[in-house]
Amino acid sequence: MSATKTTTTTPLRSPFLDNCKGLLILCVVWYHCLVVYYSPTLPLGLPGLESVLLLLVMPGFSLLSGYLSNPILNPKRQDNLLSTFAAFVVFQLLNWVMGIANAVGLTLYISTYPTNSTRANATINTTTVPYPIPIFFPTVMSHIPDTKALPVTWFLLALLFWRMLTPLIVRMRRPIMTCLIVGMLGLCTDLGFGSQNIVSFLPWYAMGVSLRHTTSGQLFWHQWVLRPPRSYAKAWAQVTVSIFLVTVPLLGSVLVSWLHPQWWSNNIGYVVSHGYSCLYGLPPTATAQQCTSWYAFGTRLLFYLLSLPIIVGTLRLVPRRPVKILTNAGVNSVAIYLFHPLALFNVVTLVLVSTSLDRITKGQGAVHGHGAPPFQGAVSFVLVSLLGVMVFCLLGLDCWRCCCWMCLRPPIVRGIMVQRMKLSVVKGEEKKELEEGEDDGGGLVRRNSSKTRFVDHKHDGHSINAVNEPLL
């Protein structure tokens, strides 16, 4: 007598996709370090690099999120959506509490700084407790002078909406064009920070979905991203294309912003920063043209167009084989993304880093002279960059994803959803089970099954990272 044994194997991860996410999350941590700890006036040449990163990082993350999403929202993925929303609530509360602690702690720190002439008049701002708790507004350090808001939880909420829309996106005739129009029309509404992001970054997500679930998208991904050379001559052609797509724009931006910083900041740099800031619903400066102006429509459309070659060119240069630190960071990219503001910008870290930078620069590093961020100068820039890289490496360890899983994936599914759900569909005397099959354009594939499938809502290893690269 023989028994049929069904085994479930975990899909192999793609080192290439993990390397892509690891590279992008490294840029995120480094950039956020500079945003909070360093002066807005970057050293010569770096404004050009900043413009390229704005075109690459969050648009690239949105595209990869779409590529890794599945249009079949089975109960397991529905549970993951619920866990994602719970993680959003948890980290929103953590950032809210941290914002209050920073408001009180940094006010005390600035008031006791030895050379601060206004320390006698410094008082704790009693309005630093925002209530009701804001959802679509920056909650981290938004009430502290010399520091900037650093909200990152908006991306979780955007993912929640985008993944619920994925079954609709794969059924559209022109998903990228449709979502591009929606993204442009977002400028006509009163959507502010957080809510504007959900609409404005949607075209990149739709592009990622199309790259995986349409024939033309798979062909584009295979030829322009994976770039498999079939001969030595074609290999050189592929390298030339990669250099043209990203290396030339990168070096050109750095060089021009170095040689002509004022022209760059008033022209190309301003256009890119205006388009990027309006993606978040916030003009880059108080004197900038509003995001509801015709100028904003032009900068947003230009931003969409410029980001595509930068993203494709960068992905072409990412290693296909595992790279120890980079690949591991890609596996833990969600943990790094959500925990790095808590690790870098809590009041204890702020005071320790500020005190250290102030002593190293002998009191000349702080822009306003009171020992608190932002800092300026080459020494401060190098040290802040090293701080970002160090935190990136530490948070990339597997221990955080294991010991803090209750924050990343709060175990609320068992308490809210039905414990056991029958997935079979009875038709006549046969039972058909809905399974994931080959998808040529987003259609569902039904396969016959002689057994009834049940799903227990238990903590599993599936996360928004754990999707393997399809065979193209």
Description:
With 472 residues, the protein is mainly alpha-helical. It has helices at 15-37, 46-67, 75-111, 154-169, 175-185, 195-200, 202-213, 215-225, 232-259, 261-266, 268-279, 294-317, 324-331, 333-344, 347-360, 378-395, 398-403, 405-408, 413-416, and strands spanning 420-422, 424-427, 430-435, 445-449, 454-456. The strands form 2 sheets. A 3-stranded antiparallel sheet has the order 2-3-4, with no helix packed on it. The protein has a two-stranded antiparallel sheet with strand order 1-5. Helix 2 packs across helix 12 (294-317) and helix 14 crosses helix 16.
| Overall helicity | 55-70%
Low-confidence stretches: 1-10, 116-127, 138-149, 422-472
Q: How many domains in all?
A: 2
How many β-strand runs? 5
Shape call: globular
Q: Please summarize the sheet with the most strands.
A: 3 strands, antiparallel
Q: What is the topology, as strand order, of the major beta sheet? A: 2-3-4
Number of helices: 19
Helix and strand pattern? HHHHHHHHHHHHHHHHHHHEEEEE
Distance between the termini: 41 Å
Radius of gyration from CA coordinates: 24 Å
Quaternary state reads single chain
Going by helix content, strand content and strand pairing, the class is mainly alpha
